[in-house]
Amino acid sequence: MRTAAIIVAAGRGTRAGGGLPKQWRPLAGRRVADWTLAAFAAAGIGRIVVVLHPDDRAIPLPGGVIRVTGGATRDASVRAGLEALAAEAPDVVLIHDIARPCVTPALIARVLSALDTAEAAAPGLPVSDALWQGRDARVAGTQDRAGLYRAQTPQGFRFGKILAAHRAHPGGAADDVEVARAAGLDVAIVAGDEANIKITTPGDFARAETFLRGQPAMQLPDIRLGNGYDVHRFKAGDHVVLCGVRVPHDRALEGHSDADVGMHAITDAIYGALAEGDIGRHFPPSDPQWKGAASEIFLAHAGDLARGRGFAIGNVDCTLVCERPKVGPHAAAMQAEIARILKIDAARVSVKATTSERLGFTGREEGIAALATAALIGQQGETHAG
């Protein structure tokens, strides 16, 4: 699933004080904007649009981000970001306020996971405080808090649907969920994060710095690395399947499933990072239902398991070891297929090949080996156990 993010940064943020717009002010050793952009990069979002005020077009930003000039209102700025993506439309888009620098890769992953089955999703926190109605600085009544949520970002949408919704909306919406609902979209609510505050007033900088400096410790990144290794021997046939791509060859690979040695190694790398064993634990070869199964099933399960535990897939790297077939002409397609299955940007996937200089079983062209590494990024203090 191709994913992009729009980071809305065109506001002036005058209520936060300090002279500079709040997104460019320092916070815990970096600018507010730097924390926000780093969280989306860590979540594996490779295509990021930053919507800027016209006066900020020359502001330094990380390499690779797409700069777009915003409008006079928030919804006009979001519309500008959506239009900038339309020519090469992603499948889903996340829309986030630049002034929420404490957003975590885990929260981003929860929104993306909800989009597997929903056309829109957004994080929210149930309202727990009593609510009053006020008039002339006096309590004039109370409001039932049942079913009420505090809205947060990032808010996620199927790209075509939210673009059409913004094009049809008259303007003046408080957020993109309001635009989506006006177009009849059903919006799923996912668990928000108390740390995901929006910097609005001067005191919010101190609160945000407390979270970002690791107080509480749950805000420190939890980075897991896993390795995978797999081997399959050749048998009679006319093609091999490597990283989800059918490659013509004068032999095939032998295995209980489709023998996709590359995808098996990547799957085991993700399981390893989760301390979840290997493919055999989850899909026993003794079970006949997996005979000839597509390895996409295994890899998708590993990816879903990681996201369900609050981890974003930072990147995967796979090396195929063989004399033949030649992998180079198919590497880009393999990269795209792995990215599709794992629901991450293709820029987070590396597929490459090497030979063993005619040494060993791969050198004798008896089979193919694969090695893989996967990096998972989560948050300490969250419950990762299954």
TrEMBL record:
Its cofactor is a divalent metal cation. Gene3D superfamilies: 2-C-methyl-D-erythritol 2,4-cyclodiphosphate synthase, Spore Coat Polysaccharide Biosynthesis Protein SpsA, Chain A. Keywords: Isoprene biosynthesis, Lyase, Metal-binding, Multifunctional enzyme, Nucleotidyltransferase, Transferase. This is Bifunctional enzyme IspD/IspF. InterPro entries: IspD (IPR001228), IspD/F (IPR026596), IspD/TarI (IPR034683), MECDP_synthase (IPR003526), MECDP_synthase_CS (IPR020555), MECDP_synthase_sf (IPR036571), Nucleotide-diphossugar_trans (IPR029044). Pfam families: IspD, YgbB. Residues 224-386 are annotated as: 2-C-methyl-D-erythritol 2,4-cyclodiphosphate synthase. It catalyses: 2-C-methyl-D-erythritol 4-phosphate + CTP + H(+) = 4-CDP-2-C-methyl-D-erythritol + diphosphate; 4-CDP-2-C-methyl-D-erythritol 2-phosphate = 2-C-methyl-D-erythritol 2,4-cyclic diphosphate + CMP. The record marks R15, K22, H256, T355 as: Transition state stabilizer.
